[in-house]
Amino acid sequence: MKLPIIKHLTQFIEENDEDFVIETIETLEALTEVPSLKDEELDVIGELISNMYGALEVQKMVKDGTPKKEALNSFMKRVLGSIDS
What we know:
Low-confidence stretches: none
Structural class: mainly alpha
Pfam families: DUF6952
């Protein structure tokens, strides 16, 4: 996951609507079923999906009252902590 992408997507959700991101995730997940995709292409799609889920999670924290910067930092600490484990 990349913090700048999650930050940008979080801003997109604020300016538009989270439904756009949810529908994009659903579309990308459907694309993963294409049998001719190469592993590298699947990796890219997976990275995009995980960043979008991350942005949705950050946006939920912001809606629940967490300041945006704190929500982003908290989310990334959790992600990095789970990678280290």
